[in-house]
Specification:
single chain, mainly beta, Jelly Rolls, Immunoglobulin-like, 2 domains, five-stranded antiparallel β-sheet, 19 strands, Secre_tail, Por secretion system C-terminal sorting domain-containing protein, signal
Length: 271
């Protein structure tokens, strides 16, 4: 049975899409990275790092305020390189709002942008469509759990990749109380992640059959993905320094990172 499970797991990986942070610091673990990626208008004072409030007890962007205008909470610059095949942007949202919602901008090379309005958000994942203009109609109430929001990018032309120009913005409606957390803003590469598995010749992970810790062959910024292609943990690691993964459930995961400038992905099995 174990051999059958492993074969099935690899099959799932073959159809999964690789995803990375949409811009530097967009998982909010390193808040300095995040604030350094924002344009000159900065971050609204009511948006802060939610330590322990993110997915799985990680960090989030916590928004707790009643905006007096339809605020740009933040606008992030592009972080190069972005995937050639930009399939979608995903983010996780948790919390409540009092009669208004969020709106997202994805910027083009000329400074104009595609608009995605969140509308009502409850306990089910949502996929948004491009809208003509920003609006904030809707209410957020996720029942205390994180809910996935997807912004499809396939077919959208001229998305900006210049790191000196705007890439992604979050806006909030005015005169309504927001008590929400945003986490794991990711961009999904439509190319199959399995390609990295078959090409990798360098070693990133020393122990691929693990219990509570992973040892690494060198220094790297790594991400751990589950079988659905979702990033469940990110970290900066050093050679021979163990990374604690006791919070992850048993199963098969993919660890990705750069070794000598080359992207390497390896499968691990957590027992």
């Amino acid at each position: 049975m174990k051999k059958i499970f492993t074969i099935l797991a690899v099959s799932v990986i073959a159809i999964a899409s690789a995803q990375t942070n949409a811009f530097k610091g967009s998982d909010f673990e390193n808040f300095t990275d995040f604030t350094n990626s924002i344009n000159s208008y900065g971050l609204k004072a009511y948006a802060t790092q939610g330590v322990g409030l993110g997915v799985g007890g990680s960090a989030s962007l916590n928004i707790n305020a009643t905006p007096t205008g339809n605020d740009y909470v933040f606008t992030a610059l592009a972080t190069a390189p972005l995937p050639t095949n930009k399939k979608e942007i995903t983010l996780m949202v948790k919390g409540v709002s009092g009669g208004k919602s969020l709106s997202f901008n994805v910027y083009m090379t000329d400074g104009s942008y595609y608009v995605f309005n969140l509308g009502d958000l409850s306990t089910s994942p949502v996929t948004l469509a491009v809208s003509a203009s920003n609006d904030y109609i809707g209410t957020i109430n996720t029942g205390g759990a994180y809910v996935k929001v997807t912004l499809p990018l396939t077919g959208l032309a001229n998305i900006n990749e210049d790191p000196t120009k705007n890439f992604f913005a979050v806006k909030a409606g005015k005169n309504a109380l927001f008590n929400i957390d945003i986490d794991d803003i990711k961009i999904v590469d439509g190319n199959l992640a399995v390609a990295d598995l078959t090409k990798a010749k360098k070693s990133l992970v020393k122990n691929t059959n693990v219990s509570n810790t992973i040892s690494f062959a060198g220094k790297s910024d790594i991400q751990i993905l589950n079988m659905n292609g979702q990033v469940v943990k990110s970290a900066s690691v050093n050679e021979n320094s163990p990374l604690n993964i006791s919070s992850l459930t048993k199963g098969v995961y993919i660890v990705t990172g750069k070794v000598d400038g080359e992207t390497v992905s390896q499968k691990i099995i957590k027992n």
